[in-house]
């Protein structure tokens, strides 16, 4: 099982909180589509023994591409790679791109899953985030999308300054009213070098508050679980049969190829990352050179990543796998570090599996970091 991630590095405008790689200048869009196809060709040997189960268009904003451009990239995947019979093919899309016409043309393409960047149904939140869409576009695009797609996920952001618990609950209820089967939801984080960080520093916007975010997370979990969603990862909630196959494979350390500027790859041993600069990426690919750096993960790196991703998911961390894949000293260390959190009921052990409790879920990243190993090869 393996996947291909394709990064589309363009956005109509910069959201105030975002530190992903994108350009707001669309001048090189066509050249980028050609370059992405060429990178797929250049890297086909890396996946010669793999069957591609998932294809994921992320960004940036993949929905700024015309459907024909998306189709031509998918055609290249099929030309150079072996693709399973029923792959999951996801497109991240923003509401302002999803006209009825676009939704219909996408539904006639191989795309079979839409991940829509709603973030909020409230105008004040969307303005603060500097999203390119407004509240009515958010609602209308979901109504239209559910007519043509069954497998839809939406993104929602909580912990936004001035977002009350009531407004957050209304956001979730609104999302549920459309009958969509998957929601990804993240706490607003203040990344350095973003407009949001600068507004907070100047006192123009209130800072985010961990306690508010935690309260929002509990409202989210309770509301979605009561509505039949399973919290299969700390930020991802799906109805049975609708968990993201792409993300699940990623959390389970499956191989993936990352195509496009800033995209990351993993082959089971090494991580690679492409240059996060569009002109340099284009130039390099034009010359037939991969603009990629790689690092071989040490046993400790791989253990730490396994603990980090495992504790965020319902699959948890297998203690016997720690012993067999990383060695007895890692197994003993993990149990020793987990002891306090087991007593505090933030972690629990079910058979062979170490998991967060309901109480510990929101704290998964901090709990994982307590189990991280340092200074061992
Ligand atoms: S649309 Fe997405 S990638 Fe683009 S700036 Fe906004 S959050 Fe970042």
TrEMBL record:
<feature type="domain" description="Radical SAM core">
    <location>
        <begin position="1"/>
        <end position="230"/>
    </location>
</feature>
<dbReference type="InterPro" id="IPR006638">
    <property type="entry name" value="Elp3/MiaA/NifB-like_rSAM"/>
</dbReference>
<dbReference type="Pfam" id="PF06969">
    <property type="entry name" value="HemN_C"/>
</dbReference>
<dbReference type="Pfam" id="PF04055">
    <property type="entry name" value="Radical_SAM"/>
</dbReference>
<dbReference type="GO" id="GO:0005737">
    <property type="term" value="C:cytoplasm"/>
</dbReference>
<dbReference type="GO" id="GO:0051539">
    <property type="term" value="F:4 iron, 4 sulfur cluster binding"/>
</dbReference>
<dbReference type="GO" id="GO:0006779">
    <property type="term" value="P:porphyrin-containing compound biosynthetic process"/>
</dbReference>
<dbReference type="InterPro" id="IPR007197">
    <property type="entry name" value="rSAM"/>
</dbReference>
<keyword id="KW-0411">Iron-sulfur</keyword>
<keyword id="KW-0949">S-adenosyl-L-methionine</keyword>
<dbReference type="InterPro" id="IPR004559">
    <property type="entry name" value="HemW-like"/>
</dbReference>
<dbReference type="GO" id="GO:0004109">
    <property type="term" value="F:coproporphyrinogen oxidase activity"/>
</dbReference>
<protein>
    <recommendedName>
        <fullName>Heme chaperone HemW</fullName>
    </recommendedName>
</protein>
<keyword id="KW-0408">Iron</keyword>
<comment type="similarity">
    <text>Belongs to the anaerobic coproporphyrinogen-III oxidase family. HemW subfamily.</text>
</comment>
<keyword id="KW-0349">Heme</keyword>
<dbReference type="InterPro" id="IPR010723">
    <property type="entry name" value="HemN_C"/>
</dbReference>
<dbReference type="InterPro" id="IPR034505">
    <property type="entry name" value="Coproporphyrinogen-III_oxidase"/>
</dbReference>
<dbReference type="InterPro" id="IPR058240">
    <property type="entry name" value="rSAM_sf"/>
</dbReference>
<keyword id="KW-0143">Chaperone</keyword>
<keyword id="KW-0004">4Fe-4S</keyword>
<keyword id="KW-0963">Cytoplasm</keyword>
<dbReference type="GO" id="GO:0046872">
    <property type="term" value="F:metal ion binding"/>
</dbReference>
<comment type="function">
    <text>Probably acts as a heme chaperone, transferring heme to an unknown acceptor. Binds one molecule of heme per monomer, possibly covalently. Binds 1 [4Fe-4S] cluster. The cluster is coordinated with 3 cysteines and an exchangeable S-adenosyl-L-methionine.</text>
</comment>
<keyword id="KW-0479">Metal-binding</keyword>
